[in-house]
């Protein structure tokens, strides 16, 4: 009987996963540059927010700060879904370059206006423009990441690393802004944010990866195209569930923007400095949680970690109400930050793997709009609750929402984990086929969704020489013989694929394939196979080379005059 792994070996295994998660991003140059771009973009956003708050406070006090925050977010929440179709057309990194450039120019212009003592209304308009661009950045970035990954593990790792960078930017942006304020006031802060945004754009220029073919401009009206993301969420119960849990979490997030102030001043008696300490605790917990989440990267438990992350946004809030002590409050709000890291790991990875790639940016834009709107509603509802029922009952009411939502969703989230586990096995099988091995994750995931199981008994025929080609096959279990003109010319086993010649060259089957022993096959329909193989240069080259080699072998017997005969439009040359 196998021995149970020791605690030390389990710890080493978790540390190995953490190191592997970070290393997978460092080794992949495309992921590395994309993550550095995110760090620059979000550092710029936090620094700009600090500078804008100073300008607004000088202009009209705390009321002006609140109003400017609302004026920034409202246009972004409305416009981001309308603009998101552009991130699903063409190459997504180009959208990110454009967005970051617009943000850099807008914040740079704000630096000039403030430096020349210009009207603050112009600064606010530039801030709104920058925020609209910022709101579009994350959906496009989230939609780009899967195309740069080859496995679900790599995507989960990328989301963990991005969560760590997000938490780092939450700390670094305000700290850099504080340093810049001491040097040159808001003008220096805006200039710093502009440079960081332009650096985020520069990091993505010339990114090289296999992007699926997409039209360069929308082919349907903008509103109808934008609505495709909403329809995708409504029609897919798993996507709708993830969005619903995200709303519960961001309602609580909005509530905490009010509660941290009231708890610090009225419940704990720590005054205004205590507000900063409570928010810093959330940020510190997010950094530590991101490091911890890197030890949990495992595509078998994404739904479970997502549910745990959502629950951690609520339980600590109730504890703060029950035990009103500063040390307890700091520890509990650090747990909220840990929950945020688990949501980055589970929620973003699940969305990236469940939503169709052709509408992925629009689905993430739906999420971004829901985040902005629910945060505002959460803040407003909490302020009203505190005024009507008091602080402690409000802490209980706010705190119970996320744990209850997570508990009600647990079984379905775990079913998602199970289905992704099966799909990961299918993806691993497809990766073993040379012409499919180089496909990015969204493409090979789409193939895995379309696999049809086929059982063939020993001695049975999969297809005969001269038959028309209707499917492509990959062997999961068993062995098959390839028979040409009555002679066995090859033997195939698990991981081997066959049937591509008839599909790629539009010729009859060049040989008979029969089961030497019971076969467990997975089949792909022609449109699924051809779209994936011919849609990416690397797989198209591999397929063209392999098929031309096989046609050269079979052509004298089948009457095909040349390797290129019958080549479909867009098929590659050898």
UniProtKB/TrEMBL annotation:
Gene3D superfamilies found in the cross-reference section: Jelly Rolls (2.60.120.10), MFS general substrate transporter like domains (1.20.1250.20)
Subcellular location: Cell membrane
Keywords recorded for this protein, A-Z: Cell membrane, Membrane, Transmembrane, Transmembrane helix
Pfam name, any one: MFS_1
Source domain of life: Bacteria
Transmembrane segments: 36-57, 63-83, 95-116, 187-207, 239-265, 277-297, 304-323, 329-351, 363-385, 391-410
Cyclic nucleotide-binding domain: residues covered: 435-529
Membrane topology type: Multi-pass membrane protein
Protein name in the entry: MFS transporter
Organism of provenance: Nocardioides abyssi
């Amino acid at each position: 009987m196998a021995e149970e792994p020791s605690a030390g070996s389990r710890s080493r295994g978790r540390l190995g996963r953490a190191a592997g998660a970070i290393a997978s991003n460092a080794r992949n140059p495309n992921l590395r540059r994309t993550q550095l771009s995110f760090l620059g973009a979000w550092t710029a956003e936090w620094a700009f927010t600090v500078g804008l708050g100073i300008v607004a406070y000088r202009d009209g006090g705390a009321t002006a700060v609140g109003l400017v925050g609302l004026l920034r977010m409202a246009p972004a929440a409305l416009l981001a879904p309308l603009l998101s179709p552009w991130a699903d057309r063409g190459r997504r990194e180009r959208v990110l370059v454009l967005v970051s450039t617009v943000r850099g120019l807008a914040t740079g212009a704000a630096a000039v206006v403030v430096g020349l003592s210009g009207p603050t209304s112009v600064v606010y308009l530039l801030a709104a423009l920058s925020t609209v661009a910022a709101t579009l950045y994350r959906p496009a970035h989230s939609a780009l990441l899967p195309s740069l990954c080859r496995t679900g593990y790599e995507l989960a790792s990328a989301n963990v690393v991005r969560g760590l960078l997000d938490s780092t930017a939450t700390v670094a942006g305000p700290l850099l802004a504080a340093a810049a304020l001491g040097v040159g006031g808001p003008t220096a802060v805006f200039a710093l944010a502009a440079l960081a945004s332009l650096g985020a754009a520069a990091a993505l220029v010339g990114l090289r990866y296999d992007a699926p073919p997409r039209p360069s401009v929308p082919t349907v009206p903008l509103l109808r195209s934008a609505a495709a993301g909403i329809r995708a969420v409504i029609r897919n119960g798993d996507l709708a569930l993830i969005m619903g849990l995200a709303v519960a979490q961001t309602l609580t997030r909005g509530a905490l923007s009010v509660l941290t102030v009231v708890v610090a001043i009225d419940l704990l008696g720590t005054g205004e400095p205590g507000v900063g300490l409570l928010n810093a605790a959330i940020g510190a917990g997010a950094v530590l949680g991101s490091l911890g989440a890197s030890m949990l990267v495992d595509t078998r438990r994404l739904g479970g970690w997502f549910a745990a992350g959502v629950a951690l946004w609520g339980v600590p809030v109730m504890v703060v109400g029950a035990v009103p002590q500063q040390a307890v409050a700091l520890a509990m709000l650090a747990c909220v930050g840990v929950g945020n890291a688990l949501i980055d790991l589970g929620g973003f990875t699940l969305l990236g793997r469940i939503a169709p790639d052709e509408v992925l940016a629009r689905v993430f834009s739906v999420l971004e709009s829901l985040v902005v709107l629910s945060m505002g509603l959460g803040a407003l509802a909490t302020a009203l609750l505190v005024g009507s029922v008091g602080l402690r009952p409000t802490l209980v009411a706010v705190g119970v929402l996320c744990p209850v939502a997570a508990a009600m969703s647990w079984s379905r989230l775990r079913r998602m984990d199970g289905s992704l586990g099966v799909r990961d096995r299918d993806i691993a099988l497809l990766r073993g086929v040379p012409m499919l091995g180089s496909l990015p994750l969204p493409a090979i995931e789409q193939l895995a969704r379309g696999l049809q199981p086929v059982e063939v008994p020993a001695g049975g025929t999969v297809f005969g020489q001269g038959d028309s080609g209707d499917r492509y096959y990959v062997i999961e279990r068993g062995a098959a013989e390839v028979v040409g003109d009555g002679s066995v010319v090859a033997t195939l086993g698990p991981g081997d694929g066959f049937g591509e010649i008839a599909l790629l060259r539009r010729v009859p089957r060049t040989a008979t394939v029969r089961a030497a022993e019971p076969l467990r096959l997975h089949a792909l329909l022609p449109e699924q196979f051809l779209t994936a193989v011919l849609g990416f240069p690397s797989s198209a080259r591999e397929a063209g080379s392999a098929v031309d080699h096989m046609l050269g072998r079979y052509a004298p017997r089948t009457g095909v005059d040349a390797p290129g005969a019958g080549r479909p439009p867009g098929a590659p040359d050898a």
